[in-house]
Specification:
The complex is a heterotetramer, with 2 copies of chain A (about 80 residues) and 2 copies of chain C (about 150 residues). Helix content of chain A is about 25%, strand content about 30%. Chain A has about 80 residues and is of the alpha+beta class. In chain A, a hairpin with a 2-residue loop joins strand 4 (about 50) and strand 5 (about 55). Chain C starts with a strand and ends with a helix. Classes of the chains: A alpha+beta (about 80), C alpha+beta (about 150).
Chain lengths: ~80, ~80, ~150, ~150
Amino acid sequence: MAVTILFLGPLRDLAGREAMEVDAPLEWAGLLEVVGADVADQLQQARVNIACAGKVLADKMALQAQDGEEVALLPPVSGG
Amino acid sequence: MAVTILFLGPLRDLAGREAMEVDAPLEWAGLLEVVGADVADQLQQARVNIACAGKVLADKMALQAQDGEEVALLPPVSGG
Amino acid sequence: MRDIRLLSEPFNPGALIGEFTDANPGLGGVCTFVGEVRSDTGVEALELSHYEPLTLPGMEQLADRTFARFDLMGLLMVHRIGRMQPGEPIVCVSAAAKHRRAAIDAVDFCMDHLKAAAWFWKREQRDGQWHWIEPRNDDYADLARWAK
Amino acid sequence: MRDIRLLSEPFNPGALIGEFTDANPGLGGVCTFVGEVRSDTGVEALELSHYEPLTLPGMEQLADRTFARFDLMGLLMVHRIGRMQPGEPIVCVSAAAKHRRAAIDAVDFCMDHLKAAAWFWKREQRDGQWHWIEPRNDDYADLARWAK
């Protein structure tokens, strides 16, 4: 099994894809390496959040994704 | 002809009638005399307004109602 | 689109709002407030009286001030007079705008003024007795917000 | 009455609001905001994407906070996802309460949070090109009012 990384909203365009699979476990440093420089730049901004296994991380640098978990990269939102 | 005095809202109950006719012209002092003590007390409160000929008076003590005009006594409002 | 009315018969807010929304093509948002006679408080009937030479002209002036103060596309302001039963609509204010803030604030502004600064007098019947209702202190405080 | 939904197909706000009003007997007032895709600005289509594990749970949490903060009888919160045409409703929030202040403020609160703090991403198509939309500075300022 693996970790699925999902690119939401404008990060999808920046990454050039909707999702990718990487080997588990996945931590913050590993995430920055696999997503490409443009997305990595965005991830380091406070306004971009990360959810792991359906929970938004209070501290995204503490990411610890295990086999089968989904990591969602969440840029600034805009609804309504 | 005469001046019609209209009692609006709760002033109607206080006056015991909806309207009365009095001789023209009608000024502030004359109004206080004809409406009865209870209504006169109310009229002297800032929160009670007077309209003459369809206009609310900025200074109700300046009332000068002529023949055929309607004087409306307007207690605190409550809509919606 | 501007639609200011005093109605002496029951009305259907949904129908008014549907027409109003359709009459403002290109809008970004519509905010609507509908006030009804409460039915949970032992009120058997409610009666709103008005003073014809002032009431509708006063509502038109309120609409003028609302258009001057907020960036609106349209304003609907409908107020009942006469005797009403619990559950019947008393008032409906709807504002259409490009952006939600103007629409929401315009409705808030109109309602505060209709409640405590328009030419209506309201009384309720409870246990067969009529009681005149004055605005609550909260209503006067709400109105005072707009003087700032 | 609490009704929180994500919809992937067009909806009729009037029908939802009618049902919602009927489902809250005894209410004093209902405030409703409906946001639509603007049609005056060269926008050909609008698309709202979301992240399913977070979006509806986030709206439920927003509803919890709204009930905790305001004295409400009912809350309806419906948000579209997917692709929409100009003139189509995007969002409908309706609050029923005994008093108008709670109803109006609850709608204002929900809309500010849906606009700038719920898990949606919005893009517009103009001249055949898609552009991602971020909240305006006004939207962030509106949201910040509730932190006081």
